[in-house]
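Project channel, design review

CF: Before we commit to the Actinomadura parmotrematis constructs, I'd like one complete example in the thread so the newer folks can see what an input/output pair looks like. Taking Glutathione peroxidase.
RD: sounds good, go ahead.
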Amino acid sequence: MSVFDVEIGGLRTPSADLEQYRGKAVLVVNVASKCGLTPQYGALEDLQKRYAERGFTVLGIPCNQFMGQEPGTPEEIEAFCSTTYGVTFPLTEKVDVNGDDRHPLYRELVGVPDAEGYTGDIRWNFEKFLVAPSGEVVARFSPQTEPDTDAVVSAIESHLPS
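CF: and here is what came back for Glutathione peroxidase:
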């Protein structure tokens, strides 16, 4: 099974249809609007613009599990992201990334180690996972790793389909 086979709702639609990303590199990020790391939205959008035409997308997954830092409705989340950071990349429904109600997508992701060997629960908002065009999870980056660091950018570039 690949992450592209997992079902997840869109922010304001019944399905985010992850199958549409098969053949693309995808940076999956659990996001929040009221977090100290929220300015990462800007760098994520820059990556989206820089690599979208080469078969890449950021996929934002809103989550309210970390100190209630994503309390908004779908409409509020969408408005915040578009007006504050000009976000054009897709956002899914708000989900749990840890615990008994962990979304199946995150069940697929959390076993992948980051550069320090960490696996397991999501540590905070803006933890990042790179999914190769085949659907294999190929990299994990801590929440504090900025999206535009050399490590993230080189990982993306090495997995672009074109």
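RD: helpful, thanks. The chain is about 25% helix and 15% strand.
CF: The beta strands are 25-31, 56-62, 128-131, 137-141.
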